[in-house]
Amino acid sequence: MDTIPEILAKQRDFFKSQKTKDIFYRVSLLKALKQEIMAREQAIYDALKKDFKKPEFETFISEFGLVISELNLAIKSLKKWTKPERVKSSMLTFPSRDYIYKEPYGNVLVIAPWNYPFLLAIEPLVMAIAAGNTVVLKPSELTKHTSQLITSIIQKVFPNTVATSIEGGVETATELLIQKWDYIFFTGSVPVGKIVARAAANHLTPVTLELGGKSPCIIDETVNLKLVARRISWGKFLNAGQTCISADYIIIKSNIKDAFIDILKTEIIKRYGVNPKESPDLPRIINKKNVLRIADMLKDVHVVFGGHVDIEDCYIEPTIIDSPNLNSRIMNEEIFGPVLPILTYNNNQDIENIIWNYEKPLAFYVFSNNSIFVEQIIKKYSFGGGVVNDLLIHFGNSRLPFGGIGASGMGAYHGKTGFDTFSHNKSISKRGNWIDPGVRYAPYKGKFNLLKKMFKYFS
Ligand code: NAD
Q: What is annotated as the active site (predicted)?
């Protein structure tokens, strides 16, 4: 088997051969990938079920379906996306025709997490290939069935000079990060994001970092509480709360908190029954280490619903925490599980005091029918992206760039933005030869006024 440097050397040679610049070749690869994924649909559901009991329904809406949509979009749009874009010329370039060419970076490294193990590995792969790069993908070591399946799909579809999957944990990732890549796309935690950024800096390699953090959800008193509770019982507990853009905690107007908690309890029971452990619709926590981490957060807080933990089964019951202290562990780490702390506010200052306590979050949610309040929130706080009156759904629109800001990440993807992420904008000015204005040439004497007039005309 080839070593990592050998694999990369082969991909580098292949990229130089110019074959990936051929749009028809790229489309043929994407079509083959789509066909293979479609053929393995059931195997994908089975793998995710084995890894953490993810229900087929959730795998379809949050992984399989999104990957197929991105593939369809890339296959349909690639010709348009790759066409050099004409822009207006300027005084300095006149006479010229000016263009932006989309150039693939070259050899791309993608490192994926475990929580949406299929989607977050394959979607960057699709857009990196669409943009004409070669790819080495490292899926997560924590979802071994899905990662093996991903490797087998990639082996079937791509020559390893174009794309390959290298399975492994920290050691493998570390060896990959030592190499010189032309682009690194990382999805995962903030501490590992910093390791990736440091490794990339050694070679001045551009990076996209899709990270996490504590994403808040504000609820004011203008809402229909039943509808809000229904939507939160979906978005918070999807994937058992192991979602980077999950609502990490709630800040609700204090006078409606108790009513909201009562309705939310009812909604959770409707979704998962009185014993959620028996529900086929609640995935498990990825491993014991994470169960213990979340269980530790439940100590010294006021659990008003749920709270049951079964370490052997990697099970944590959907849980509501009432008014935790801001110094508690649960309010100082990304929860990444089916546990929802509920804080209260009375005025805007209270909200500020909580939100500005934290780094810029990846997502932000506000439930309100007061459009002035909503606009204030959107403009005041800095965050990756968000939703008004629901959770998560902004992720599902490929026309909305998806990414973080500050500690929640840098760069974005989805749809055309994903293609752009993996493409360098190469600016080209094609100079006309039919005229060669003399104004720029020395001696400058007597030309300054003309230059200023031209400047005024063109700007
Ligand atoms: P993680 O950072 O532990 O691991 C992510 C990847 O990095 C894995 O492939 C892993 O093997 C590799 N890795 C781990 N340690 C490494 C090291 N020391 N050096 C190099 N590589 C290393 O993250 P995770 O636990 O898999 O995923 C959960 C985190 O990811 C959460 O913080 C979540 O918010 C975040 N996340 C973000 C997004 C997003 O789109 N922004 C999506 C999903 C998850």
A: 210
Residue 174 neighbours by CB under 8 Å, 6+ apart? none
Output the residue whose Cα is nearest ligand 1's atom 37.
211
pLDDT tens per residue, range 264-322: 999 999 999 999 999 999 999 999 999 999 999 999 899 999 999 999 999 999 999 99
* Residue range 405-449, pLDDT digits in tens: 999 999 999 999 999 999 999 999 999 999 998 899 999 999 999
Q: Which part of the chain is CATH 3.40.309.10?
A: 216-403
**Cα 1 to middle of ligand 1, angstroms:** 27
Q: Tokens for 358? A: 């934290």
Write out the two tokens for 322. Answer: 């009432």
Compute the average pLDDT of residues 325-336. 97
Alpha-carbon span 262 to 260, nearest angstrom: 5
Instruction: Kindly state the DSSP code that residue 308 receives in the 8-state scheme.
Output: -
Give the CATH number of domain 4-211+409-424; options: 3.40.605.10, 3.50.90.10, 3.40.50.720, 3.30.70.20.
3.40.605.10
Q: Give the model confidence (pLDDT) of 8-54 as tens digits.
A: 999 999 999 999 999 999 999 999 999 999 999 999 999 999 999 99
CA 25 to chain centre: 27
The residues carrying an active-site annotation are: 210
d(CA 164, CA 172): 14
For residue 228, the CA-to-ligand 1 centroid distance in Å is 30
Quote the pLDDT of residue 315.
Answer: 98
Given ligand 1 and candidates 181, 192, 208, 336, which is best to mutate, with the most ligand atoms within 8 Å of its CB?
Answer: 192
**pTM score of the predicted model:** 0.96
Of 140, 146, 143, 200, nearest to 172 (Cα)? Answer: 140
DSSP letter string, 159-205: -TTTEEE---SHHHHHHHHHS--SEEEEES-HHHHHHHHHHHHHTT-
* Tokens coding 438: 């003399």
CATH number 3.40.50.1110 is the correct assignment for the domain at 216-403: no
CA distances from 310 to 148, 196, 242, 277, 280 (A): 27, 34, 17, 9, 16
In single-letter form, the type of residue at position 374 comes to V
Residues of the chain with CATH 3.40.605.10: 4-211+409-424
